[in-house]
Amino acid sequence: MTGMSATSRTVKTSEEMHAVLASQQEKTVLIVYAHQSAGSFNAAAKNVALDVFSAPEYEVEVSDLYAMNFKATATAEDIIGDVKDSEHFRYAEETELALQAGKLSADITKEHGKLSQAALVIFQFPMYWFSFPAIMKGWIDRVLTKGYAFSEKKRYSQGVFKDKKAILSFTTGSQELMFGSNGINGDMNVTLWPMQNGILNYCGFQVLAPQIFWAPSRAPAELRTSMLEKWRVRLQGLLSEEPLSFTPLDCFDEEKGYVLKPEVSEKQAGAEFGLTVGIHLNKRLPLTQIKAGV
Fold first, then answer.
1. Per DSSP, what are the bridge partners of residue 212?
2. What distance, in Å, lies between the first and last C-alpha atoms of the chain?
């Protein structure tokens, strides 16, 4: 994409970029990978996915962020030429204008091309400070550009990527019990809510239950091998899995500040569990938000 003319880039970064035929996307996989070491467990998990999706019926791309030296910071350098308002620079608005004009930096437009083709996106990473590594968060900040990955009208259940699936596959430093509802780290469901809802679901992705590798650095070799084999088994049916459940956009009243419509709240009044981890209505959290292996 870096050799395209400005006109061509404008077409590729408009809504037309998302009009790729379903048959072309059906088995295209993008792995967004963040680990510094080729000898890491994360590298092994990424390689298992590469092996599974090396079959002739798949197309697979890998964005190896450290190998690419991917720029994590969202700055005016992401725009070719002058910005609209240099004194009060607003990244989302300026990059949306650059997207429309075909003036986004080449590294962003290249990732747009990969993402537009993908039916499934696997984020493979070690959990750092209860979130993504900085380099992967930078990929999210820069590649999920306003006007490309979301807009005011195209988000959540009406999102741009509603025909795509995404999954978080990651390692932890802590044992599973530490991420329980009574564990010192707190409920993993709560930890994942900003990532799964606030990023993936916000952009419309069908979010698959995460693949969590609990503290592999503390596990014996045979257990690490078992973890990877379970991942291999799951990967073989991943594209056919049902996604997690999130509350649809039309359940919220836009005119009243996007709060649940009264009829939705009333329907949920007698339920034992909340709608989701974040929209829990002061009830027990749903039990079906995470999946650790198979």
1. 170
2. 39
Task: For residue 196, give the DSSP letter.
Answer: I
Cβ atoms of residues 236 and 230 within 8 Å: no
Q: Could you read off the pLDDT of 47-93 as tens digits, one per residue? A: 999 999 999 999 999 999 999 999 999 999 999 999 999 899 999 99
- Sign of the Cα torsion 158, 163, 164, 165 reads positive
Q: Please list the alpha-helical segments (H only) found in the chain.
A: 6-12, 22-25, 41-52, 91-101, 106-117, 134-143, 188-195, 221-235, 262-268
Domain 23-242 has CATH 3.40.50.360: yes
Sign of CA dihedral 193, 194, 200, 203: positive
Q: Please give the pLDDT value at position 181.
A: 87
Residues 231 and 45 sit within 8 Å (Cβ to Cβ): yes
CB environment 226-238: b (16+ within 10 A), e (fewer) = ebbebbeebbeeb
Task: Give the relative orientation of helices 106-117 and 134-143 as an angle to the nearest 10 degrees.
Answer: 80
Strands of 127-280 (E only): list them. 165-171, 206-207, 211-213, 252-253, 259-260
Q: Which two tokens stand for residue 32?
A: 């967004």
What's this model's pTM, rounded to 2 decimal places?
A: 0.89
Query: What's the token pair of residue 287?
Result: 């039990």
- Report the alpha-carbon distance of residue 102 to residue 108 in Å, rounded: 11
